[in-house]
Amino acid sequence: KEKRRGRGRYGGQKCGRGHKGERQRGNRPRLGFEGGQTPFYLAIPKYGFNDGHSRRRQYQPLSLQRLQYLIDLGRVDPTQPIDLTQLTNARGVTVQPLKRDYGVQLVEEGADIFSAKVNIEVQRASELAIATIEKNGGVVTTSFYDPRSLEILCKPVLFFLRGQPIPKRMLPPEDLVRYYTDARNRGYLADPSKVAEARLELAKKYGYVLPDITKDELFKMLSTRKDPRQIFFGLAPGWIVNMADKKVLKPTDERLLKYYSS
Amino acid sequence: MICAGGPRVAAAAAVVRAWAWAWGRAGAAGVSTAPAGPPAAPEPRREKLLLSPLPLSPILRACSVPVPPHRSPVQAWVESLRHHDDERRGLTDLHPDVFAVRPRLDILHMVAMWQKNFKRISYAKVKTRAEVRGGGRKPWRQKGSGRARHGSIRSPLWRGGEWLWGAFAHGPRGPTSYYYMLPMKVRVLGLKVALTVKLMQDDLHIIDSLEIPTADPQYLLDLARYRRWGRSVLIVNVNEMPENIGTAAAGLKTINLIPALGLNVHSMLKHETLVLTLDTVTFLEKKLLWHDTRYSALYPFSMPYSDFP
């Protein structure tokens, strides 16, 4: 097709650009600009599916296949409780607390090939994922981390270098309390007896024999759980970790102890 | 040099140049070979000058880092600097993922250019019309004078006869920095490619240690000449030990001694020959191969990691 040239009687003179102004001089503003008035695409608010999308809680998916892959390669140690810190150190998941990530969720991809006995702690888990892990003799717990605790959990070394005492982990907000007090989700605030009942129910529903973990040699490790206010397994809130001198400092003042143990 | 003078002077000069004479015409081309050679036979002097006797068993070194099964190690001769003839003291295996990588010349270029430019700060700065002294007053009235209209004598239109009278509108402004960092793995790969290229082009020599018999710089030059190493030699060691080679190389411009931490692509390309000790080879293999199998950095490597070296 012949290119439009700006020559000759019909294509020349103003060359189809109009007379003066931004049109001819090639300085028109961007698409959607309305001369300074709030443009249409900004004036109309989001509704329904899209509104508040940037304020929603996000959970990084962790498939059972990926977990099995990490255990097989030796990046994650199944003989110790698996925490978000262990997963981040193994570079299994990348969690960005600043992008409204509230943790990790277990996903069913790879449920048929999963065969590892682990004590895992995530933030959300689907029913089939819980069933798969319990069928293999493991333990699942869902717990809540507020953004500050999540950042500390993901990058502990950077936090210790700051020299601040470990803060208390906050309790979940109203809409999540129901989720974490429910035994079917294996929430950390749920009643342990109801959790045992829920395990039996799941076994019945999916049709597998629930193995007895009390007779397991790793029972002590499998049953270790964190306190609702604790962020790290061996450390309590209020302690300061000194990386340079390799020491842990604990508070001795009564008021501090009362505050951190409340 | 034909020594003129008494027998004492002749004997002294003969002692000094004995090791040069012993190499024959192929080596010491800088020394004029007079037909009248030294009076004493060269053999007895040679035994005296060696620091330690030649070992009976050859030096054989295997790779310190395990080699992947689908690749086999590259091999190189182990030489020595103790005597000019001391080539082929043994054999060493070199890891193929360091000394036999793909010859990525584009990466060599990238790393060499980065080394040259990232330190550059250009201090060129030219004054604009606001900074040039003067030029606040309108030179002549707007209308009626018959000349072009102007607002100040320092506008960039004013170049005139003297280049200083006007000012630059878009000249270099202030110190500009050309700092940028290539990814760590690219820089590591650049080192590996440079080592590979040196090995494959017969410019890499491996020595067992840095001991030399004399602290004379001429010894090193003649050794390099005899062994046909090239015009410039870069000797790398992990931690500098012997004093002899330190004093010898200090006086020389073309033969340079650097620690292993200072090895870089620019130096390797600048010098024609590269000479590594066995300790350096172990050190380089360990450090350069770690990057192939490490985790990515969660936070900068300058902060402490519990599981990284």
Provide a brief overview of the structure:
Chain A: Belongs to the universal ribosomal protein uL15 family. With 262 residues, chain A is an alpha/beta fold.
What features would you describe in this structure?
Chain A: One of its GO terms (cellular component) is mitochondrial large ribosomal subunit. Chain A: This is Large ribosomal subunit protein uL15m. Chain A: It comes from Pelecanus crispus (Dalmatian pelican). Chain A: It is found in: Mitochondrion. The complex is a heterodimer of chains A (262) and B (309). Chain A is α/β, with parallel strands linked by helices and 262 residues long. Chain A has a domain of 178 residues. Chain A has 12 helices and 7 strands. In chain A, the strands form 3 sheets. In chain A, strands 1-2-4 form a 3-stranded parallel beta sheet. A two-stranded parallel sheet of chain A has the order 3-5. In chain A, strands 6-7 form a two-stranded antiparallel sheet. In chain A, strand 6 and strand 7 form a beta hairpin. In chain A, helix 6 packs across helix 10 and helix 7 packs across helix 8. Chain A is elongated. Chain B is 31% helix and 12% strand. Chain B is elongated, with a radius of gyration of 30 Å. The interface between A and B is small, with 9 and 9 residues.
Index terms:
heterodimer; A: about 260 residues; alpha/beta; B: about 300 residues
**Shape by Cα distribution of chain B:** elongated
Question: How many alpha or pi helices of chain B?
Answer: 9
Largest sheet report of chain B? 7 strands, mixed
β-strand number of chain B: 9
Strand order of the largest sheet of chain A: 1-2-4
H/E order of the elements of chain A? HHHEHHEEEHEHHHHHEEH
Strand proportion of chain B: 5-15%
Lateral arrangement of strands in the main beta sheet of chain B: 1-3-2-6-9-7-8
Residue share in helix of chain A: 25-40%
Straight-line N-to-C gap of chain A = 79 Å
Instruction: Calculate the mean pLDDT score of chain A and round it.
Output: 92
Cα-based radius of gyration of chain B, to the nearest Å: 30 Å
Number of helices of chain A: 12
Q: What Rg of chain A, in angstroms, do the CA atoms define? A: 28 Å
Mean pLDDT of chain B: 83
Low-confidence residue ranges of chain A: none
Topology of chain B as a string of helices (H) and strands (E): HHEEEHHEEHEHEHEHEH
Helix coverage percent of chain B: 25-40%
In oligomeric terms, what are we looking at?
heterodimer
Sheet bearing the most strands of chain A, described? 3 strands, parallel
